[in-house]
């Protein structure tokens, strides 16, 4: 499938400076995966930070992210995802999170793509995702004198649609391509992002159109 640019104002936050600093290393012995990404962006959080999408990635089941579906429900079409960057809000609700790296430390770095995505809904009063599209993007890492930066925009990697059960879901990520073999870091190591586009919901007992998600995280093979 043709690789496509990730667009929209929400993703522009990653590369607004053109040289997003990922992390520094003091020596080659430092674990490059010591970096722990805590980035989460939703459809409207770029306009209203109080929506706090990071509550869906805080590893605390007592907290949750909540946000209303758009007034005119629809899907994030290919045209929406590939249009030039603008302040136009896509006609669907999405949550985008940092998905780690394509490799784990080693000499050479070892491929370590995510194998599943877990989605835990919020309280029963809120709507829960029913039909979703899971879209992965990757991003080149550049070594600038031992400062690792993300100088270019993320690009489309792979996607798949799912219909969820009304509860905790573990989605297989077998549609992702394997990580490319690399002899050095950064080489072919890529930063990964995953965007969950919510296309329909199970109504909540109190809120039929406001979605609640307690936790969203990727999992890798246990070492």
What does this structure look like?
The chain has 2 helices and 14 strands; from the N terminus they run αβββαβββββββββββ. It is mainly beta and 223 residues long. The longest helix is centred in the middle third of the chain and has 5 residues, at 78-82. The radius of gyration is 17 Å and the shape is elongated. The two termini are 31 Å apart. Mean pLDDT is 77; it is low at 1-21, 23-36 and 77-89.
Overall structural class, as computed from helix and strand content, comes to mainly beta
Distance between the termini: 31 Å
* Rg on CA atoms, Å: 17 Å
Low-confidence spans: pLDDT under 50, at least 5 residues? 1-21, 23-36, 77-89
Mean pLDDT: 77
Strand content: 35-45%
CATH superfamily: Galactose-binding domain-like
Would you list the SSEs in sequence order as H and E? HEEEHEEEEEEEEEEE
| Fraction of residues in helix | under 10%
Spatial strand order of the main sheet: 2-4-13-8-11
Q: CATH topology, anyone? A: Jelly Rolls
If classified by CATH, what would the architecture be? Answer: Sandwich
Quick tags:
single chain, 223 residues, mainly beta, Jelly Rolls, five-stranded antiparallel beta sheet, four-stranded antiparallel beta sheet, 2 helices, elongated, disordered N terminus
Structure, briefly:
The protein is mostly beta strands and 223 residues long. It is built from two helices and 14 strands; from the N terminus they run αβββαβββββββββββ. The strands form four sheets. A five-stranded antiparallel beta sheet has the order 2-4-13-8-11, with no helix packed on it.
């Amino acid at each position: 499938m043709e690789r496509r640019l990730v667009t929209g104002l929400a993703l522009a936050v990653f590369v607004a400076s053109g040289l997003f600093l990922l992390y520094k290393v003091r020596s080659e012995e430092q674990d490059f995966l010591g970096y722990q990404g805590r980035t989460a962006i939703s459809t409207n959080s770029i306009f209203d930070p109080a929506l706090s999408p990071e509550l869906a990635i805080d590893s605390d089941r007592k907290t949750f992210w909540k946000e209303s579906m758009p007034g005119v429900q629809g899907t994030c079409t290919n045209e929406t995802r590939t249009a030039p960057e603008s302040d136009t809000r896509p006609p669907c609700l999405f949550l985008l999170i940092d998905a780690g790296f394509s490799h784990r430390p080693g000499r050479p770095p070892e491929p370590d793509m995510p194998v599943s995505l877990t989605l835990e809904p919020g309280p029963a009063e809120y709507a829960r995702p029913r039909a979703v599209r899971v879209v992965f993007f990757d991003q080149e890492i550049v070594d600038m004198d031992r400062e690792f930066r993300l100088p270019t925009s993320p690009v489309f990697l792979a996607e798949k649609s799912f219909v969820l059960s009304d509860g905790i879901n573990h989605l297989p990520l077998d549609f992702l391509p394997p990580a490319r073999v690399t002899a050095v870091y950064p080489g072919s190591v890529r930063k990964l992002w995953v965007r969950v586009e919510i296309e329909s919901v199970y109504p909540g007992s109190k809120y039929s159109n406001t979605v609640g998600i307690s936790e969203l995280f990727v999992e890798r093979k246990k070492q």
